[in-house]
Specification:
Elements (H helix, E strand, L loop, with lengths): L3 H11 L8 H8 L8 H22 L4 H11 L3 H25 L2 H4 L7
Length: 116
């Protein structure tokens, strides 16, 4: 397998530049600029929909009685069971974080490049 740098170098060397007397530069200069969407608008839409969903869930669950009953039942659990549950949740979240970090590492994407 050829690594990315070697392939990129070979492609650059294989295709010589064709002089178009500035045609490409003129076309690029005449293209309209990219429209920038306001980022705050997207954030407000997401926050608004999240609040709407939370409000609907609250009212559809009987005004929070379901949440209240869940908290009361959670208070009756033994403390060791809550600690085991919290530790298990931490392990699951940590495992997902490690998997995401590994997948974003360029060296891990191509296992043939790793030296063991």
């Amino acid at each position: 397998m050829i690594d990315d740098e070697t392939l990129d170098r070979q492609l650059r060397e294989a295709v010589p530049y064709i002089n178009d007397h500035g045609f490409t530069a003129r076309v690029i200069a005449r293209l309209p600029g990219a429209r920038r969407e306001p980022q705050w608008l997207r954030a407000m839409i997401v926050v608004g929909l999240a609040l709407l969903g939370a409000g609907m869930a609250y009212f559809l669950s009987g005004g929070g009685s379901l949440v209240r009953q869940g908290v009361v039942q959670m208070a009756d659990f033994p403390i060791w069971l809550l600690l085991v549950f919290a530790f298990g949740c931490g392990l699951v979240v940590g495992a997902f974080a490690v998997i995401v970090a590994i997948r974003k590492t360029p060296e891990v994407r191509d296992l043939t490049r790793l030296d063991f």
